[in-house]
Amino acid sequence: MLRIAICDDETAARDALRFQLEKIIDDETEEIVYEFSSGVNAEKWLRKYPGQIDLLFLDVEMNGMNGMETAEKIRAFDENLLIVFVTGYQDYVFDGYRVGALDYVMKPVGVQRLREVYDRVKHILKERMQKTFIVKNSDGVYRFQYDDIFYFYSDRRLVNLVTVRGIYPFYEKLDVLEEKLGNSFVRIHQRYLVNGKKVLHIGRTSLDILGQDRQLQTLPISRALKETASTKLARMMLADG
C-alpha cells in the first residue's frame, strides 16, 4: 500500500500533479490520501500522524514556509518519509540532498518522469516493508520501521510501543510480538521487550536504553531471563561496535 500526499500552495498545481499521478497509479491499494495548501499545515499534520504517509510531493517555491524549510522541520521528527521536491527552477535541485530528499521533478511534471520516481519509490517501500511494524488502535493506523522502535512494555491488556515520537498503545501479547519480531528484539522481563540496537548498557539487574525523546531510561531485567537476555544483548552490542 502506497499512500501519497501533495503539498503546494497553488490549487492548479496540486490538481495538475494529481491528474498525472492518477494516470500511473494502477493498484487499488495505492492512493493520494491528502493534499496540503501550505508547508505549515503539512508539517503539523505529519507530526501528529506519523507513518500515515509514505511519499510526499513537496513544492519548493511556496509562500510563507517554503518547501525546503518544511522538509527541514519534517526531518526533525521523521527520517523515513520519502520526499520528492517539485520545482520550476533547476537551481533548487541540489539543496534537496541536505534534507534527505529522494528525488525531484520539474514543473510541468511529465508522466514519464513521474513514473520513474514512482517505480523507485515502490522498490524502496517493498524493501522497507520487510522490517515495518504496524500499530492499529482507536486513533488510527501507524507504521514504524524497526529502527524507530526503542522497546515495548505491557500494561494490563495493552502493549505500549515506545518511539522517539511518542508512545502508542494497542492490544496484543508480548509473547506474540516476541515471536513475530525475531532476533532484533529481546525479552528482558515479563513486561518488557527491547530493541537490542537501542540498548546502551547492561547491568546486573537492569539495563539502560534510549526512550521517548531519546532520553535515557532504565528497565529491569528479570532473574529468570537474565542469562539468556544478557547473552543476546551483549552479542548484538559487540556486533554493532
Explained architecture:
The chain is an alpha/beta fold. It has 2 domains: 3-131, Response regulator (Rossmann fold, 3-Layer(aba) Sandwich); 138-240, LytTr DNA-binding domain (OB fold (Dihydrolipoamide Acetyltransferase, E2P), Beta Barrel), CATH 2.40.50.1020. The chain has helices at residues 11-24, 39-48, 67-75, 111-128, 174-181, 226-240, and strands at residues 3-7, 31-36, 55-59, 82-87, 103-106, 132-137, 140-145, 149-155, 158-163, 166-171, 185-189, 192-195, 199-202, 206-210, 216-220. The strands form 4 sheets. It has a 5-stranded parallel β-sheet. Strands 10-9-8-12-11 form a 5-stranded antiparallel β-sheet. A 3-stranded antiparallel β-sheet has the order 13-14-15. The two termini are 35 Å apart.
Q: Characterize the biggest β-sheet.
A: 5 strands, parallel
Nearest-integer average pLDDT: 89
Helix-and-strand structural type: alpha/beta
CATH architectural grouping of the largest domain:
3-Layer(aba) Sandwich
Order of helices and strands: EHEHEHEEHEEEEEHEEEEEH
Give the total of domains. 2
Q: What is the name of the CATH superfamily of the largest domain?
A: Response regulator
Q: Uncertain runs with pLDDT below 50, 5 residues or more?
A: none
CATH class of the largest domain: Alpha Beta
What do we call the CATH topology of the largest domain? Rossmann fold
Number of strands: 15
How many helical stretches?
6
Radius of gyration: 21 Å
Percent helix range: 25-40%
Q: Biggest sheet, strands in spatial order?
A: 2-1-3-4-5
General form: elongated
Report strand %.
Answer: 25-35%
Q: N-to-C terminal Cα separation, in Å?
A: 35 Å
